[in-house]
Design goal:
51% of the residues lie in helices and 0% in strands. With 92 residues, the chain is mostly helical. It has one domain (5-86). The model has no long low-confidence stretch (mean pLDDT 90).
């Protein structure tokens, strides 16, 4: 199983925002807060992506084309299922 384009775009923007002084004022982090997801969930997802793709974690920064991504999951259950299926270390 691999990450979808929408999942990677969201994770890429989220990772870029993490470097900001106030990331929670930015779009991907606002979506994270709206859905009440712990940031460690996305860190683990990025680590799982890097491991599955044989890449470095930092490569996630180059994967977005849109600075205002949409939430890539239709429900909390879908997110939990997708992320847990993608990597054992991803826990929601």
């Amino acid at each position: 199983m691999t990450f979808t384009k929408k999942e990677l775009e969201y994770l890429s923007v989220w990772a870029c925002e993490e470097k900001a002084n106030d990331p929670y004022s930015l779009p991907a982090h606002q979506l994270q807060a709206d859905h009440k997801v712990a940031g460690v969930t996305f860190i683990r997802a990025i680590k799982a992506w890097a491991r599955l793709e044989g890449r470095k974690d930092e490569e996630i920064f180059q994967l977005h084309e849109n600075a205002r991504p949409s939430w890539p999951w239709s429900s909390e259950e879908e997110m939990a299922n997708r992320l847990s299926n993608l990597g054992a270390e991803v826990r929601v």
